[in-house]
Amino acid sequence: MSRIAKVAVDLSLDREFDYQIPDELVSTVEIGSRVSVPFGHRHVNGFVVGLADESDLDELKPISQVLGEKSLITEPVMELARWMSSYYLAPFETCVRSVLPAIVRRKSRGEKKQLTVSLVNSNAKEAGNLICEDLTDKQRAVFQCLEKNGTMLLSELIAAAETTASPVKSLEKKGLVHISSESVYRDPHAGVEILKTAPLELMPEQAVALEKIVTAMDAEKPQTVLLHGVTGSGKTEVYLQAISHALEQGKGAIVLVPEIALTPQTVDRFRARFADKPERVAVLHSSLADGERYDEWHRIRSGEATIVIGARSALFAPVKNPGLIVVDEEHEPTYKQDETPRYSARDAAVMRGHRENCAVVLGSATPALESYCNAKNGKYLYVDMPSRVDDRRMPEIRVVDMRLEGQRDGKRGLFSKELVFEIRARLDRAEQTMIFLNRRGFSASLVCPACGYVSECEHCSVKRTYHKARHRLICHLCGDEQGAPDRCPECGSPEFKYSGAGTEKIEEVMAKLFPKANIARMDSDTMRKKNAHREILSKFRVGKIDILIGTQMIAKGLDFPNVTLVGVVNPDHALHMADFRAGERVFQLLTQVAGRAGRGQVAGEVLVQTYTPHHPAIQFARRMDFEGFCDQELEFRKELFYPPYSHLTCITLRGKHESQVEQTCDLLWQCLEQCVSSDVMLSPPVPAPISRVRGEYRWQILLRAEKTGEMTRPVRRAVAAIKKWPKGVRCTIDIDAASLL
Ligand SMILES: Nc1ncnc2c1ncn2[C@@H]1O[C@H](COP(=O)(O)OP(=O)(O)OP(=O)(O)O)[C@@H](O)[C@H]1O
Ligand SMILES: [Zn+2]
């Protein structure tokens, strides 16, 4: 039995402290236990992160108390936190904290209790008759109510007997009723009924894929598999059957889905397959209430739930002995957390797989170039499914050159003639259309043609977006908003121009073009209410909506067989972003959006309206040529030593005073220059592409190297070398940065 515990306390000190484990706690303290320890003159809480037999210190204070019954962090998850801390250069304690939902960390007792009341025994009736005369009217009413209904919730009993708790208490004192407290499960799916689905008979490609995955799962050293399946190839069905295999082996499974694709539809598909024992499936995502999250997490910890489906942080779910971890849409940038620790859930999943000796499946129709190269190099097993279920045809993608469109009409409309024509054809045939535009609001910007004034956010270096319904100008970066002016604040001209359409405007114009159609819009503005998602999607499913307009919310994972047309409006602005992955992102997005069309009997069609029709990302997407896209993109990455040929670290300094930020950045760069080896490519400091956010200026330094370790050591040293780190300048280090904006 170890006698010394290493404890990370909740004080952001980034170090561990040794404590003695007192005799009476030896059997309860384990790695991951939540404990209370003396610290200076007070007590603080912390986690046991390690156990030891010896300490460098002679006198150790004892742990005062263990909070909760079970350790909260299992050993493999604790190891994962340690790996994150060293790989992503994040304080260990922050990593430990981030593997637990806040509510689980805060409350050692967070279950919801309910009081139930029952008659004491079968003789109670007789006893009741005997003593009925002794009872007050109210007590009698309560007694009779229980006689009639059996055990009742205290609250229901009080309501039914039209009384208060006090007569019930009196009856308890007389020994006639028993009041007990029971935990109630806060069910995130309360009221939603699902029917069990049977496994589908697999298509040949699916069968091969499943077989390879199962072999990887059963191997002595389970492997990571890249499942490259085109949209509609039935990846989800393969996941489901692979999970069944894990269950048969007595193991659990974790399925990660991007938050945005974590629609009720997706969750229901998993719940339905395992509906014979619904308690086996737990969900973890951001729209759960705290209590629901607490219960779901503890159901996993207790071993009741063995299948977890959730967003990024569900990777840390305390599933015992997982047999499979699935990362669906593995290319999604949202798997990268954008606060410390800046981990990639995909890469951390592969890491957890290694540690728990469990297979990992990364699935996508458009794998990230990093994963694709890992598969081609043999690091991952490559499995592909190049055709759709039932040999359904891939949609035909047409690129509409909006430059020509403009010339034809003399004036530029929002929609091309072709798109309008095709939508009308769908309405006539009672088929459905989706229109995708990755910009919410009404207009991207407000411009004064007279003096050239553009409304920009005061705190960020971006334009404000006009929201017409609310008649306000809103900054999409910091959320700052103000009323839209009637005339130009600079020159007073009343001739304002709003340019660059958003989803709100598309909806308005559509409604004018197709007055009889049912049109709905899905973006973060219309999705504020809790069940808005479910409502719109189920209306769309049953055909009550003809045209669904949306942002990236509608790009992924949705499976609506009656959608035969997808229109993409202006993917161009994403191409012009100052990020080396811009082309890759547009290619992925177009492929995903296009994948929503033609998933049923009727073939689908996709129209992409663009001002840059010849851009390779658009052309390769049109031809559905993933390999062609990769070849040319990889060539460019290789030439410039960008990922996947290197690992990339982005250091960002931010602060209110630009000169201070710039000077500190220069200083840091000089330190770095002295620390890095010749294997590291160090770029000089530059202002970030979005140079100001929330009133703070931002400067960046990029480092690239084949191995991350070659950068982390010098970066750590350089940051420490700056003795006088000016107050007000903050530094973030992003290893394997997903975005440079
Ligand atoms: N073996 C099968 N037999 C019949 N239908 C199937 C089979 N496998 C999957 N399907 C159906 O095909 C459709 C597409 O499958 P699924 O959604 O799993 O594809 P996917 O590859 O995950 O798609 P995407 O990446 O586009 O979201 C679904 O409606 C699914 O029920
Ligand atoms: Zn702003």
UniProtKB/TrEMBL annotation:
Any GO molecular function: hydrolase activity
Co-factor(s): Zn(2+)
Binding site for Zn(2+) 1: C448, C451, C488, C491
Residues where Zn(2+) 2 binds: C457, C460, C475, C478
Pfam families: DEAD, Helicase_C, PriA_3primeBD, PriA_C, Zn_ribbon_PriA
Cofactor note: Binds 2 zinc ions per subunit.
The keyword Zinc belongs to this UniProt entry's keyword annotation: yes
SUPFAM superfamilies found in the cross-reference section: P-loop containing nucleoside triphosphate hydrolases
Catalytic activities: ATP + H2O = ADP + phosphate + H(+); Couples ATP hydrolysis with the unwinding of duplex DNA by translocating in the 3'-5' direction
EC number, as in UniProt: 5.6.2.4
First-tier enzyme category under EC: isomerase
Domain Helicase ATP-binding intervals: 216-385
Domain Helicase C-terminal: 461-668
Oligomeric form and interacting partners: Component of the replication restart primosome.
Cited function: Initiates the restart of stalled replication forks, which reloads the replicative helicase on sites other than the origin of replication. Recognizes and binds to abandoned replication forks and remodels them to uncover a helicase loading site. Promotes assembly of the primosome at these replication forks.
Protein family according to the UniProt entry: Belongs to the helicase family. PriA subfamily.
PANTHER family associated with the record: PRIMOSOMAL PROTEIN N
Protein name (record): Replication restart protein PriA
